[in-house]
Design brief:
Blueprint lengths: L9 E5 L6 H8 L4 E5 L9 H10 L6 E5 L3 E3 L3 H11 L4 E7 L5 H17 L2 H4 L13 E5 H6 L12 H11 L4 E11 L6 H9 L2 H4 L4 H21 L4 H24 L10 H21 L3 E3 L2 E3 L2
Amino acid sequence: LKNQSKTIKVILVDDQSTDNTVKNAKKVGLDSLLILPGSKLPAGWSGKLWALEQGRKHVETRFLVLLDADIVLKPNLIKKILLEAKKKNINLLSLMAHPRMVSFWEKLLMPAYIFFFKFLYPFSLSNSTNSKIAAAAGGCILLETKILNEIGGFGSIKNALIDDCTLAKKVKQNGYKTWIGLTNSVISIREYNKLSEISQLITRTAYTQLRHSPILLFICSLVMGILFLVPLVAISQKESLMLMGLIMIFIQVICYLPTLKYYSMNPIYALSLSFVGILYMLFTLHSGFNYYFKKGALWKKRYYKY
């Protein structure tokens, strides 16, 4: 952030961290840095939204940028998106961060995370003023301050687990323009070295995405089973069934290759989409299981069940 602009104003909400956040932030030497000690989480709020709400009350600029703590920006990125938003009259502009793809599980599963997100929220529809679909990626969001205040701040979505897309939907419902896109200039440095860590990322919101509906969970699992499990079973059969399985896998490869190409990943990973899809199906089922039989979604040592 210091490299973005000499005059940038930064509000850091220290959400009861235990990793020397304040000490390390002060070492950077930002000229205009306001550090807010986060207060205890009230009932009915998600942790991130409560932290953002505390910061919102201190914003004095026309535009604000919401950034996660594990996001790194390339130089001049904020200036560029600000100019783009003004030029195209975009009221909420969001960039989906380039996920870390270093460990085996990151390389195998994180490109698919983007692929499935774009399937659920087609960017062309999300960015269209004629569509009710709205999407945003919480790691990096540029927003007009007056619009955020107009919709009631983060209190209007205080218990949303999928807070970024919920915010975009709220802004769009109020007649404003939203836009989301991919970029290599917003980089997530959050590590997912274990399968369990990525599983937790998906299970946190998967069942919420399905509106906590057992019927939608069943339909989603059935569709994913047909798309990803059936081809693997079919290729182990004979003649026509094997051909059907190969055709389905070929279609998967063609659809997945653009995502892999964008992130400069080895095209061979396209052959893994059936296996990856099965894992995501299991994560989704696990999300439903947690909702009904455990305390709900676990994220950063907090449980949510909305």
